[in-house]
Amino acid sequence: MTEWLLRGVRLADGGRRDLAIKGELLVEAADLGPNRRAVEADGLMALPGLVDLHTHLRQPGGEEAETVASGTRAAARGGYTACFAMANTDPVTDTGEAASHLADLGRREGWAEVRPVGAITKGLAGQELAELGLMHRAGVDLFSDDGRCVQNAQVMRRALEYVKDFGGVLAQHSQDDDLAGPGACCHESAIGGRLGLPPWPPAAESAIVARDIELVRLTGGRLHVCHVSSAESVDLIRWAKARRLPVTAEVTPHHLLLGTVELEGYDTTYKVNPPLRTEEHSEALRQALADGVIDAVATDHAPHTPQDKDHPFDVARPGMIGLEQALAVVLETMVLTGRMDWSGLVERMSAAPARIGRVSDHQGRPLEPGQPANLVLIDPQRRRTVDKATSLSLARNNPYHGRDLPDPVLATFWRGRATYGGDDF
């Protein structure tokens, strides 16, 4: 493996340091050989590699939209060194064998660490618990029926009790199907009414969040709330944290930046579940992320083929890709606005996701000798206009196409290997 010396790089805490990479570890510069590749990093920053708790890699079953190889290449382009692959594949990751297969695929073809997320229920049907214990033995600690919500409170209770025995986490897609009925696809608002799109009210999310918090109080199990989108849910999560309940939450980049106004042209790129909401909700999410009420940023990277998106808005598949622009959006909405400093960004995009996903022994670690060489080298000043045609993802449902955003990532190193950008130096 190539040895690297990043000279005079700035860290999140404001300090400067030479970072030396040898094998899979950060080492002292004196430990490098004479053939090391040196990079003059004045004006550049190094951050711990980003960790995404919520990635749809589509493999197996959806390889036309994304594969483990293409999705993790896009992840590396965005500064990620680990992705948690959601279970709603075909077949569903609901057995120990399926989880082991996906982990093996990640080791063979991944450009970042791939951690399987196990389904909570068999076939995501919401009725019978999946092989939670066997999947845990295969290395799974995070479980989710994402794409669907566990509607049955008794099933959710049993799952929380089961995973508590081994410290597992249930990541819930919070959506009451009685409140967000068939075809629901637009925030319940004046815009939605004018566009004639079926409403997806914030209460459909917060009702499940409230129920699940009560189940956490009952069982002591660990809950992670996926893609929080409403101010009401933020208030409930704040309440739970004030009582030290084991509840964590994530927000997506698109819910931080985008809103219902994007739907005016019926562009199905902007159809996502939960839907984009009004500025009132976006502002509540940004404040909650700054305050730590929301623990992490997660992309909910959801690639689709043109055939899945080329339909009337209410029947098109929901989802957006987001791995390559996630860091850019957080810079734009949180750091450049002064809401969050660099240390806060590292906490929300690297350290906290690593803790929640139980990979903090080797991901999200401080950039010090002896630690794994998982890091991203960035230029905080660089910007560009996003062009979906240049994406490393197979999909093109990119909601940031045509926007001027930061373009910070110069190189990503996973386990000491340059998985993106190394050839540019």
Which properties best describe this structure?
2 domains; alpha/beta; four-stranded mixed beta sheet; 29% helix; Urease, subunit C, domain 1; TIM Barrel; 19% strand; 12 helices; single chain; 425 residues; globular
How would you sum up this structure, described in words?
This protein folds into two domains: 4-45 and 372-424, Urease, subunit C, domain 1; 49-356, Metal-dependent hydrolases (TIM Barrel, Alpha-Beta Barrel). The protein has 425 residues and is of the alpha/beta class. The chain starts with a strand and ends in a 5-residue tail after the last strand. The strands form six sheets. A five-stranded parallel β-sheet has the order 9-10-13-14-15. Helix 4 crosses helix 6 (202-219). It is globular. A hairpin with a 5-residue loop joins strand 1 (4-10) and strand 2 (16-22). The longest helix has 18 residues, at 202-219. It has helices at residues 68-77, 96-109, 132-137, 153-164, 190-195, 202-219, 231-242, 253-257, 279-291, 306-309, 326-335, 342-356; strands spanning 4-10, 16-22, 25-27, 37-40, 45-48, 50-55, 80-85, 113-116, 142-143, 169-172, 186-187, 199-200, 222-225, 247-251, 296-297, 375-378, 383-385, 404-406, 409-414, 417-420. 56% of the residues are buried. It contains twelve helices and 20 strands. Helices cover 29% and strands 19% of the residues.
